[in-house]
């Protein structure tokens, strides 16, 4: 398994971050991360403000990215950086009642970069580059969320049903209140 390292500058990550990254890595098969040296957890201040990163001819503001993939070179194996503060943003406490929310958010960064790794090592049938990384991100996120949080899915279905049912009634009440207000 790829090693998890931390390199933060003037930043204390929330406690759930490391556990979440470990869970996300455990959902991957060894082939997915073969040849990957490490996952470095970092923050936008540590990667530097204003510097840009060139990906396929486009420049990206380094500190607005959620992560970076560093391909293997002759001297070192491939490694991934996850920019924790940009990825999780300010999370309301209520959303931390379940690990599903942090896992989902961090998966967006980690699995996208793992996607670049798979694109570079295994390759994909048709797409390459950003599109391939995005395909992998969606696929791996779905696998992880289904495996770990299957019990939340019926709840989501019920909530969607209730919202559909109550939606028109709530809209009517709002309209009525507006009319009364003038
Ligand atoms: Zn990318």
What does the model show?
This protein is an alpha/beta fold and 182 residues long. The chain has 2 domains: 3-148, Collagenase (Catalytic Domain); 153-182. It is built from 6 helices and 6 strands, in the order E-H-E-H-E-E-E-E-H-H-H-H. It has helices spanning 16-26, 44-47, 84-88, 100-121, 129-149, 152-181; strands spanning 3-7, 36-42, 52-55, 58-61, 67-70, 78-83. The strands form 2 sheets. A 4-stranded mixed β-sheet has the order 1-2-6-5. Strand 1 (3-7), helix 1 (16-26) and strand 2 (36-42) form a beta-alpha-beta unit. Helix 1 packs across helix 4 (100-121) and helix 4 (100-121) packs across helix 5 (129-149). The longest helix is centred in the C-terminal third of the chain and has 30 residues, at 152-181. It starts with a strand and ends with a helix. The model has no long low-confidence stretch (mean pLDDT 87). Residues 112, 116, 130, 133 line the site of zinc ion (ZN).
Number of β-strand runs:
6
- Strand order in the sheet with the most strands: 1-2-6-5
Radius of gyration: 20 Å
User: How large is the count of helical segments?
Assistant: 6
Shape: elongated
Given the helix and strand composition, which structural class is it? alpha/beta
Helix content: 40-55%
Average pLDDT over all residues: 87
Total domains: 2
User: What's the CATH topology label of the largest domain?
Assistant: Collagenase (Catalytic Domain)
Strand content: 15-25%
Low-confidence stretches: none
Instruction: Please state the second-level CATH architecture of the largest domain.
Output: 3-Layer(aba) Sandwich
Termini, distance in Å?
64 Å
CATH class of the largest domain: Alpha Beta
Reading the helices and strands in chain order gives EHEHEEEEHHHH
């Amino acid at each position: 398994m790829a090693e998890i390292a931390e390199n933060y500058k003037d930043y204390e990550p929330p406690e759930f971050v490391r556990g979440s990254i470990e869970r996300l890595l455990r959902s991957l098969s060894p082939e997915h991360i073969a040849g990957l040296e490490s996952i470095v957890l970092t923050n936008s201040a540590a990667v530097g403000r204003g510097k840009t990163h060139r990906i396929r001819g486009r420049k990206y503001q380094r500190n607005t990215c959620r992560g970076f993939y560093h391909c293997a070179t002759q001297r070192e194996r491939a490694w991934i950086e996850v920019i924790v503060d940009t990825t999780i943003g300010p999370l309301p406490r209520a959303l931390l009642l379940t690990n599903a929310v942090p896992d989902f958010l961090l998966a967006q960064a980690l699995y996208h970069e793992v996607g670049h790794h798979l694109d570079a090592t295994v390759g994909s049938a048709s797409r390459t580059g950003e599109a391939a990384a995005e395909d992998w991100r969606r696929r791996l996120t779905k696998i992880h969320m289904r495996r770990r949080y299957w019990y939340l899915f019926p709840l989501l279905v019920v909530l969607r049903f209730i919202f559909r049912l109550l939606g028109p009634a709530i809209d009517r009440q709002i309209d009525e209140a507006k009319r009364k207000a003038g």
